[in-house]
Amino acid sequence: MDDLETRELRYFVAVAERLHFGRAADDLGIAQPALSRAIQQIERRLGVALLERDRRSVSLTAAGEVLLRDARPALAAVGAAGRRAQRAGAPTRQLVLATKAGSSHEFLQALLDANAADAGATPIEVLLCEIGEQQGLLLDGSADAAIMHRPFDDFAGCDGVDLDSEAQVAIVPASHPLASRTSLTLAEVQHVPDLPIARWPLVGGGYPDGPGPEVRSQSQLAQLVALGKTLLVIPRSSRAWQWPEHVAVPVLDAPLATTVFAWPEGRLTPDVARLRATAERLQGSAALTA
């Protein structure tokens, strides 16, 4: 059996995800008959049925479910390889570092300064993202390294080195009675009737149950806190994005948040290794503990 081509995998995934040949063909920009023939050709080459079809519906067979599960990361790996190759061959090479906007600001600044002072280091391009996006940026080749945090971020498919740990604070509206407190506990911040904790999207889609507002970005969250609609618990160093309408109150029993320098699993390039060494030299400095 010949190996499947990337184009064929892309066609199959489009149909398998939409379970509709017409919509998949529109998304791919090809005619529906051509897409149907392509899927039939894949099935003939594999010798198995991938889809169950009738006049009203399309569904995956067991073989189709396996191919869909394996095809997604395969396509992602091909795309990542292309992006990494483009960056490596660019006239001016840069190392892309992904980090949550407003997160570990003092450490990020110290890392950029230290890298700039290293005459042999590759210049850094900072890629700011929302919460939980660093892993995807590493795996799809958009970023070479990332600043991440345990226990919040997903490290599947990533390697990393732990740096320093820090306490967490509750960001509350300055007008709320909690803003006058010198400290709080997790039980207290989790049971504030007029300030339900905001809910972030779950991996795979949807939101966890709860009364708090659904949020997708830190800017959205910041405004909701300022409006007195929610609160959040974050690492102490993330206060850099705090608004004048916010107050940070230490949460005494919150788990420590650990800053992690991460990279795609098995892809510790010389440039990334050099930046990792710089990050480790900064470990324990005021940049991480302030």
TrEMBL record:
Residues 4-61 form the HTH lysR-type domain. Signal peptide: none annotated. SUPFAM superfamilies: Periplasmic binding protein-like II (SSF53850), Winged helix' DNA-binding domain (SSF46785). The lineage of its organism: Bacteria, Bacillati, Actinomycetota, Actinomycetes, Micrococcales. GO terms for cellular component: protein-DNA complex. It comes from the Bacteria. InterPro entries: LysR_HTH_N (IPR000847), LysR_subst-bd (IPR005119), WH-like_DNA-bd_sf (IPR036388), WH_DNA-bd_sf (IPR036390). Belongs to the LysR transcriptional regulatory family. PANTHER family: HCA OPERON TRANSCRIPTIONAL ACTIVATOR HCAR, TRANSCRIPTIONAL DUAL REGULATOR HCAR-RELATED. It holds the Pfam family LysR_substrate. Transmembrane segments: none annotated. Keywords: DNA-binding, Transcription, Transcription regulation. This is DNA-binding transcriptional LysR family regulator. GO terms for molecular function: DNA binding; DNA-binding transcription factor activity. It comes from Frondihabitans australicus.
